[in-house]
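Supplementary Note 3. Input sequence used for the single-chain structure prediction.
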Amino acid sequence: MDFAYTEEQRMLADSLRRLVQDEWGFATRRARATQVAMDARAWAQLAELGVLGLNISAEYGGFGEPPASLLPVHLELGRGLVSEPVIPSAVMSAALLVACADVAVRQRWLPALATGQVIMTVAYQEPGRRYETDPSLCRLTSAGDTGLQLSGTKHLVWHGAAAHAWLVSVRDADNEPVLLRVPADSKRVTVVDTPTLDRARCARLDFDRTPLASDAIVARGERARDGLAMALQWGVAALCAHAAGAMERLLEITIDYLKTRRQFGQPLAAFQVLQHRLADMLVAKEMGLSMAYVAAAALSEPDEGRRSRMLASAKLEAARAGRFVAQSAVQLHGGMGMTDELEVGDYFKRLTMVDQLLGDSAEQLAVLETLAALE
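The predicted structure, written as discrete structure tokens, is reproduced below.
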């Protein structure tokens, strides 16, 4: 795969960087983090720039860009710590619908995702089951000739309270996996919205015999499993690029601080031991960036085993490199690095959360171990 930016990708990255600098500065980002409701203006700006419809085909109102286009976009979003639900909605939900929904469902919902009129997120995690993707606690039953009922709980739903609809993994009466589109305004649903460590948000969804129409079913059986797997794979690739962008910007902030802060009559950047630590941070950042390229390339890999191995390896390195760069940045800022007045702490929290999202390091190691055993 050729990762050299096309002219269109370069223009998009430049435009997005200017937008992020103008609209996601330190003060604005902090103010948005205290708001329960999502900023509609910021979301509309991302949609206008084409970010939300980037990988949705032109047939469904998007731009039909290849997986490699995730890199320039999510690198820039990561640099600005943009917390809007771009990955859950425009990346993961769109990938799920493309992978397993029928044409009618695609025609109805993909254009709405591309324009930002509708926000969706994937609800797959259940209490006590960590990152298990096969549903168990959420059950779908029949309710008359044309209706359905959903009962159970999903938690840690990324931007669940901001979504207009959730793509929920469940099991039906025959114990078959099913993917549902559940409108957020459905009856008998309790949504508990919670801020996360990195100033984003997640939600717990409790369904108590929630009534649904029969057309709520998106996919069944293997199609449902494949659709959820594809959503998570696209989400991991975008998250790796986001982490690489955050590391890049945090390294720049740290270098500027060491050049400005003086001790013993000279800038801290003049001390060799600190130069060595910066060099280690640069190597870690480059490793994270390289593996973000690997993750994007994996989305075009036809072999399922190889694709899973590439993505698990990329996620592992994104978490490791992000953790090292974030912790080093805090240390190099000294006591100031522990205060809430500097944005270095915001980057530390986001890069710490990268490991927890979409499967932590232990989960990725388990994937690699399983794949190795199958060889």
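The radius of gyration is 21 Å. The mean pLDDT is 94.
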